[in-house]
Design brief:
Blueprint lengths: L2 H23 L3 E8 L4 H12 L5 E8 L10 E4 L13 E5 L1 H9 L7 E6 L3 H8 L4 H13 L4 E4 L2 H6 L8 E4 L16 H9 L1 E5 L12 H7 L3 E5 L6 H11 L5 E3 L15 E4 L8 H8 L4 E4 L2 H6 L6 E3 L4 H13 L1 H15 L2 H17 L1
Parallel strand pairs: 1-2, 1-4, 2-3, 4-5, 5-6, 6-7, 8-9, 8-11, 9-10, 11-12, 12-13
Helix pairs in contact: 2-14, 3-5, 4-5
Length: 372
């Protein structure tokens, strides 16, 4: 055999071995089952998993409903019809998120030879009550809890949420994986002339929470009415918008509040905020807080159990939801202590709540449950 032939064989051998190694790395087949691909906090978690684990596993995303403002998933995506059966037998892990995806996997459980996982992103009853009326909210809660009890593994996004459901899912293996995020910049210069103009006159209070009653946003108009040098900008939408608008009208502060609607480039707007506020009454995690931390905006948050679990008063300025003076103090403290708070908060975010950290925790979990 001549030297050229030997060299060629070596190249083929190396290519073959490289292919084998790659296949070994991607041996874990994961199905992420979602209600849609929409840009919302629970779907972002699946999106980040698919992005950061693409070299570690063979991931395919399944979704039930076509929507607009979708996240740019890079892996294979398959649209499912809810009432049509699907064979999941070829997957090692079937990881579902939210009620209709959980239900779909449950309906097709006889085809599943791998392990099932469901992430609980919210306090189910409270969340459904904000979206649906009786009896639909009650029936969906009953259905969701029944379906979740059949899961082999249940993941909570905080220990507070796990504690809340301690006696509900006794038969499942329970795990806690904190959420993670990353706000990518657009790579181009961005300037919002309206917000630039407002910042010359006012301090900007920013919120990105969905406009739902449980988000507690109704405490903000009172603060704005008492503090003439503040302006509230709201980057979101929801069924509580009319109630908030009526309150704003009643207090006569229309000239210092602006509903900006949904923005898929929200990362460009955080730098305009002097303070970010998340005043939720009930929240399992609160991913938007991490977004603000990543952009080094001081955070004010309600002192509910999940937030107190995740952050300390060295990172977040907390307030009592039942006390308007407490909110006033927390906002002014956040502004005065900005350098101290944002530095500590960014350190907490970087070490605990990035998308990569979260994805690696899920990878470890996938490997663990596969062996169980």
């Amino acid at each position: 055999m001549d030297l050229g032939s030997s060299h060629l064989i070596s190249i083929f051998a190396l290519c073959f071995l490289k292919g084998v190694v790659t296949e070994m790395k991607k041996a874990l087949k994961i199905a992420l089952v979602l209600p849609s691909l929409s840009d919302s906090a629970p779907i972002k978690i699946a999106y980040f998993i698919s992005i950061y684990l693409k070299d570690e596993a063979d991931i395919e995303v399944f979704y039930l409903k076509k929507t607009i403002n979708n996240l740019p998933f890079e892996c294979k995506q398959t649209h499912l019809k809810f009432w049509k059966s699907f064979d999941f037998s070829g997957y090692d892990i079937i990881h579902s998120h939210l009620v209709f995806a959980d239900w779909f996997v449950h309906r097709n459980r006889k085809s599943i030879s791998g392990k099932t996982i469901s992430t609980i992103h919210t306090y189910i009853k409270e969340d459904l009550n904000n979206v649906y009326r009786f009896p639909k909210n009650y029936l969906l809660e009953l259905l969701w809890l029944t379906v979740l009890k059949s899961k082999q593994n249940v993941v909570y996004v905080s220990s507070s949420l796990q504690k809340y459901y301690t006696n509900t899912f006794r038969k499942s293996r329970n795990h806690v994986v904190y959420n993670g995020t990353i706000l990518k910049t657009t790579g181009v210069d961005f300037e919002d002339f309206e917000l630039c103009s407002l910042k010359k006159k006012y301090k900007i209070l920013g919120t990105t929470s969905a406009l739902l009653h449980r988000k507690g946003l109704q405490v903000i108009p009172e603060f704005i009415s008492k503090n003439k040098d503040w302006y509230w900008v709201v980057f979101s939408d929801g069924n509580y918008k009319n109630s908030l608008q009526n309150l704003i009208n009643k207090l006569g502060i229309n000239d210092r509040c602006r509903f900006m609607g949904y923005r898929n480039d929200i990362q460009n707007y955080y730098p305009y905020f002097d303070v970010f506020v998340m005043p939720s009454y009930v929240e399992a995690f609160g991913l938007s807080i991490c977004d603000a931390m990543e952009k080094k905006v001081p955070v004010v948050a309600s002192n509910i159990p999940s937030f107190k679990e995740l952050y300390t008063d060295k990172e977040v300025s907390f307030f009592e939801t039942t006390c308007s003076k407490s909110l006033d103090h927390a906002i002014h403290y956040a502004l005065q202590s900005k350098a101290f708070l944002v530095e500590n908060a960014f350190h907490k975010y970087k070490n605990n709540f990035t998308a990569m950290v979260m994805a690696n925790h899920y990878l470890a979990l996938y490997k663990l449950v596969q062996k169980a």
